[in-house]
Amino acid sequence: MKFNRYEDLGVFRDTVLDILLEDEAGNNLPISIITDSKSETSGKWLMSTITDDFDNIILIGLCALPYNIILSEPLWVHGSLESILGSVEFLAHEMKRVKCNASGVFARTDLADRFAAAYFGNTDNKVKTTSVAMRLDKLLPYTIVSGSCRQLTQSDLSYAPAWERAFCIDCNIPVYTPEESTARITARIGTDRHYIWEDGEPVSQVVYGRDTPGGAVINWVYTPPEFRGNGYASALVAEVSELLLRRGKSFCCLFADADNPISRGVYSKLGYKEVCFFRQIQFDKDIE
After folding, report:
1. 249 and 156, same structural domain?
2. What is the pLDDT of residues 150-167, one digit of tens each?
3. Once rounded to an integer, what is the mean pLDDT over residues 94-113?
4. What single-letter DSSP state applies at residue 40?
């Protein structure tokens, strides 16, 4: 096996994009990063591949250091033990050798677990969250509920940062500061990206977060506890998904909490189908 590191985003994109597009929904995160980012932003990234003895790419690693490394495999590698055995461990070894300090890993569950063990060792000093990528190609009939969908406005800044914080806590992911949340949400005003379901008052939100060449990714789905159980989030996800499909997207996708059968069931009833399970593992101290 060989560890290949790329300094140029364009070269890396040309090398791996077609491979990632073979599973466009499952690879929506790395695809959106390498297609939306500019070369000048990638100076501190780790852009890498592992190739076998025949120069076939068997593993792709992308990390905006010092953040999480995102791992992907070509579709043909899945189930091919001869190809995958040792590739993740080899990448972890090479990253330590060249002193690339990632703060965590995001990948299909088996890849994430293997990388964490090889890179950081068998320790309990990790925070794990598991999600499932879900894809919608055709929206199914859904229940109409009271209220309506509208875009984010300036007045929503009075509560939207608190919703974002609550979402992060619920999903066990890093929490933004109030100032960071306000800046992030303010930037979405007027961009046709952030949607609110209103039923006398704001009761739920959905964000159209990023694109792939053929798809749209929905995230930040949140309903405060006092408004749950009324179908607001389901209706909002349905309307935004339908809007994106009408605009020409071939599919929509999202990540659902793998440990929350209620939310997974809600998305399934809309026509979302499970693609693959992913795990995010955060390390709580630097690698030695």
Report:
1. yes
2. 999 999 999 999 999 999
3. 91
4. G
Q: Quick one: residue 172, left, alpha or beta (phi over 0 = left, psi -120 to 50 = alpha)?
A: left
**Between the CA of residue 49 and those of 55, 71, 105, what are the distances in Å?**
10, 10, 15
Please give the Cα distance from 67 to 32 (Å, whole number): 16
* Burial of 81 (C-beta count, 10 Å sphere; 0-12/13-18/19+): exposed
Note whether residue 19 is domain-resident. Answer: yes
Domain that holds residue 36: 2-122
Is 141 found in the same domain as 116?
no
**Using CA atoms, how far apart are residues 216 and 214, in angstroms rounded to an integer?**
7
pLDDT tens digit string along 214-260? 999 999 999 999 999 999 999 999 999 999 999 999 999 999 999 88
pTM for the predicted model, two decimal places: 0.89
Predicted local confidence at residue 127, as pLDDT: 74
Do 269 and 157 reside in the same domain of the chain? yes
Where among 71, 100, 122 does a domain terminate? 122
Residue 287 lies in a domain: no
Task: Count CA within 13 A, CB hemisphere, residue 201.
Answer: 7
288 falls within a domain: no
Residue in the structure block whose two tokens are 């070369």: 39
Q: How far apart are CA 73 and CA 57, in angstroms?
A: 8
Number of domains in the chain: 2
**Are residues 145 and 113 both part of a single domain?**
no
245 found inside a domain: yes
Compute the distance between CA of residue 12 and CA of residue 125 in angstroms, rounded to an integer: 32
DSSP bridge partners of 132: 256, 277
Strand partners, 133: 255, 276
pLDDT at 42 over 80: no
Structure token pair of residue 1: 């096996």
